[in-house]
Amino acid sequence: MRRASAAVTTGLVLAGLAVTPASAASRPTGPQQPKRIVESLDRGLVAVPAEGGGTFLSWRLLGTEYGAGVAFNVYRGSRRLNSRPITASTTFTDRSRGSGAYTVRAVVRGRERGASAAAFTPGDIPLAAAPGYYVQHAWPGDLDGDGRYEIVVSRLATDLDKPNYLEAYTLAGRQLWRVDLGPASYTRGGGNAANDPPPAAISGYGDVAGYRNDDNVTVYDLDSDGRAEVVVKTANGTTFADGAVIRSDDPLDQFVSVVDGRTGVERERVPVAADLAADGPSGGQYGVGYLDGVHPSLITKQVVRAGAKRGDFRVLFAAWDFDGRDLTRRWTFVRGAVGTSFHQLRVVDVDQDGRDEIADGNYVVNSDGTFRYVVPGAVHGDRFHIGDLDPKRPGLEGYAIQQTEGGIFTAFPWYYYDASTGERLLTGSHPDVPQDATLWDVPRGTTADIDPTHPGYEFWAATAAPDLPGAGVWSTAGKRISTATPSVNFRIWWDGDTGSELLDNTYVEKWDWRKRTSSKIFEPSGVVSSWRNAVPFYGDILGDWREEYLAETSDHTALRVFTTNIATSTRLYTLAHDPAYRLGWTVRGYLQSTLTGFYLGFGGKAPRRPNIRTTAAADRAWQVIAEDNFVTDSGRWSAELQSGGTVTARDGVLDVDVPGGATVWLKQELAGPYEIEYTATPIAAGGPNDLVTDLNSFWNARDARSPDDIFATTRHGAFAEYDHLRTYYAGQGANLNTTTRFRRYVGEPGNRPLIYDYTSPLIEANVGVHVRIAVDGSRIRYYSDDRLVFDYTDPDPYRSGWFAFRTVASHFHIQDFTVWRPPTAA
């Protein structure tokens, strides 16, 4: 455990108080730690008008190549613009004349590599029509795997009586999809009545105490396949981009849905943890952390306010792993009725062991879901920050403010602390007067390096008066260096130095440490901020290591992207490859500044290369290779009917209603390894074909008469016609079909070799059965409702072919058909 200095200055309470012991987990360091799997980004080359004329260019240095001596050449068309490879920064100003697209090329060990994508000039992102809506939050993520960020936004209605929307856009302005959270995103009801948020509300709910700061959304590549997923809290009535709708018997049910970032289609859905259900629907925030040090995990924070509208917080953290198909809970941590939750969370490696912890203001949960510490004496506050704030101290530090409201008085206005142990290093003081909510309340505070004459970051809070003991700008050494304070919203890296600028409303300002005043250095017109004078997003999503921000146009019809055009001599890797910084984007909530895991400020040393790799994790991700949710006719199926009948796709169901034999083929040829899954329900509702016979499947099928194209031979649905197939077959019986069978057809009429024949499981009328067929080389497995029915190893396997549903004189509803490519390594 690190020790704080015992000396403090006037106006501060002594630090070094006793703390709850932190976990004594082992701490591998340096090369012993495994590398995190992160996004594979392109150069992010941007071209904008330069100050004084010409074009300013900026591009990424990747974290994986930092410190490896990579230089760059800049081209316009085929002409190189720089005389020598650029090594001092990743910017260039072109004042020459000519035409052609700008590109950059890396130079590695004297050899020039391929050209980057053409330069992008940021501008407006038109928003889909939604009168009366505004953008609350935005999350970046590489949704399609091209190395460029797309943006997911939450859009809320100003009058609170319309559904929340979640939408995705490219930075170039193309809309990808919309998810409509439905009536459950604005209609309340439940255990605490007015204290409950609507079950599907995202990004806050204005008139419910404690829930204005929710997000319940995050965007990240959770299965490390190169494409980001979107995770969102959903409820009854949520409609996805393909038209699929959640139908739940209980309107208060809440779910965690994983959405395909490319399409807006739901991939997976699980109920939220039920531990807090008695207190009604929960709010909260979502984020991402690397709990094993290598793979990303989803972190969900559920919050209810027990009892009255201003009641104590009850908090539940759950950690989840997503493998491309299944969302599996890793652990759950429940904190009882306490008044100490903040309206945010931070996911960061506070003890530097390579695995992330979860911080909720004044307390921290370990990567394994155990309690780590609580800061002594600290209670609820709205904002807190964790980063390397003092380059002279090892590890990370935190700064948090304390809120006095609702009759709860805090012991101090703010504190500066050791992020690993919770030890308070510096503590602000309240005025020496009787408790006064107006004087003692601190609604905001921030930290940034704004003064090069004092090592480390500075921090300050929004106090009621500048002469209060805790007011002013403080250094990490405990010195009040100014009674005047800058804006208290966000820190941003905008100009060419490594100190911080400040982002407030929609403008950037610079603190003059000599005059102790701020001045605006960039102020765009025609845009507005959102809740609490915050823009929907800011961060390093383009160009070099400095940050961009998004602001909504005044008429709420577009998002506008702003990036700096100021040259810099500082060469850093993209901040998106710093783990602490990148994970800060995954949480919105009560927006706070995003900080790096290394010291980035005046006089800082060059950081180490981040311990990351960008290759996809083949041992992690399942890939969808075919699917149909049957919302409408997709054209993916071909039916062979013996005696007529109907096969229709509508409203999430493939309805097979036939008086005779029917075979319904997937038109896509499949090659193993793969897994097929679907749900089938035999209908018995009095219809003429509601006979509940059997449910059959063919897979890896080929017709011996036309082995290269199963559709080149005509068949009419009679069972004997399929004797010409070379295929695997499984049939689950019902009624007169009293067994469940597995066969290996060999393409000979009258010869259908029987491998297995069991008396169970059989299908039942109006009861859905979940079928899963796993094909892996010579091994074939068939599951019914997760029960392994057949496990067959074929000495001469069929490795590819076509799949079909098969039934006779029956009526089935087929749902949620998916074919998965399994991980290549276990």
Topology:
Elements: E1 36-37, E2 46-49, E3 55-58, E4 71-76, E5 79-80, E6 91-94, E7 102-108, E8 111-115, E9 124-126, E10 133-141, E11 150-157, E12 165-170, E13 175-180, E14 217-220, E15 229-235, E16 254-260, E17 266-271, E18 283-289, E19 297-305, E20 313-322, E21 327-338, E22 346-348, E23 357-359, E24 363-365, E25 371-374, E26 384-387, E27 397-401, E28 414-418, E29 424-427, H1 437-440, E30 445-448, E31 458-461, E32 473-475, E33 480-482, E34 490-492, E35 501-504, E36 507-512, E37 517-522, E38 527-528, E39 537-539, E40 548-553, E41 558-562, H2 579-584, E42 612-613, E43 623-628, E44 637-641, E45 646-650, E46 653-666, E47 670-671, E48 674-682, E49 695-703, E50 725-732, E51 740-746, E52 754-758, E53 769-776, E54 779-784, E55 787-793, E56 800-821
Domain Rhamnogalacturonan I lyase beta-sheet: 38-118
Domain Rhamnogalacturonan lyase family 11 C-terminal: 216-610
GO biological process, one term: carbohydrate metabolic process
Q: How many extended strands?
A: 56
Termini separation comes to 38 Å
Low-confidence stretches: 1-31
The CATH class of the domain at 623-821 is identified as Mainly Beta
Q: Quick check: average pLDDT?
A: 90
Count of alpha and pi helical runs = 2
Beta-strand fraction estimate = 35-45%
The secondary structure category is: mainly beta
Gyration radius (Cα, Å) is 30 Å
CATH architecture of the domain at 623-821, by name, is: Sandwich
- Helix share, percent: under 10%
Main sheet makeup: 14 strands, antiparallel
